[in-house]
Amino acid sequence: MVCDFRALNTYTLPDRYPILRIHETLTQLSKEKFITSMDALEGLHKNFLTPHSRRLLRINAHCGIYEYLRMPFGIKNAPSHYQRMMNTILPHELSEGWLIIYIDDIIIC
């Protein structure tokens, strides 16, 4: 099911967690001899929502009311939330400089 979350997003306080700038990432990658990339397939959809968030994301359809159990696409702070989660899971690898995480893309160099 596809939903338009623009109205909700206007009332959502922005999460200012930093996401890598693509230009800086490409500059860093241009210095590497070998790189490999992995995509965390549907990574956002792997995150469970809190009960409060589920209530905010309810869908009223002609056949009933539905709630997302996992993070849908289109939520304002989803990319920042996911970036924070990935950086929290792999802090040592990031600090060693051989791993780059851009939301759901993991780059090894």
TrEMBL record:
Taxonomic lineage from the root: Eukaryota, Fungi, Dikarya, Basidiomycota, Pucciniomycotina
Name listed for the protein in its UniProt record: Reverse transcriptase domain-containing protein
Residue span, Reverse transcriptase domain: 3-108
Pfam short name (any one): RVT_1
InterPro entries: DNA/RNA_pol_sf, Rev_trsase/Diguanyl_cyclase, RNA-dir_DNA_polymerase, RT_dom
